Amino acid sequence: MAAPEGLFALEGRPTAQLIADQLREQIVQGVFRPGEQINESVLASQLSTSRGPVREALQRLCQEGILVSRRNRGVFVLELAMEDIREIYAVRVAVESTAADALLDAGQEQVKDTSQALKAIISDMAKQVAVSDWKAIARLDMQFHTSFVAGAGNTRLIRIYKTLAAESRMCILNLAVAYPRIDVLVQEHQNLLDLLEAGHREELHKAITRHMESAVEDLTGTTEEGSP
Question: Is residue 105 domain-shared with residue 204, that is, in the same domain?
Fold first, then answer.
């Protein structure tokens, strides 16, 4: 396994969480490809640490579902099939709809704080769309939705969504699919924000569902009607 860019030796006392965070980011950026084996000893050497924390970090990422442990073979980056994509985005609909309800129930002050964060992300997204920086767009896309869920203030929803966000970025980057609807990307996110600020609960639920269904179509190259 060649030394990937972005991994750096840990200073001070290394922890499994720090290693897991580094490795997760490298995976979702496509540095480690789907199906690629993660060598525990090589990784420990690159990070200038012992194998114990690395092993624990790999176990954490296996529990999250972005790595897969195969008996007598080792640990590998998850390979996503079409059905995986549909499942990921179906769960995202459920989580984001629940977060939307929690946000709207929390009151205008919490909605206002969340909206300010989302506006800044949309502004950055528009700049990256203008220069077609796909990796930055994918990162900001998920940052928008992660911030949306975080705004609800439900720690369990946030924890669940962390894995969904990582898997979604893997879908976007590792399946080599650019955004085919680049002209409406910013508009779709702005629409979600507008509905949140207006407090239109039912319309927001529908918009979240449409947004995720469109993403599935983009990623799988098919429509739900034509899916097997």
Answer: yes
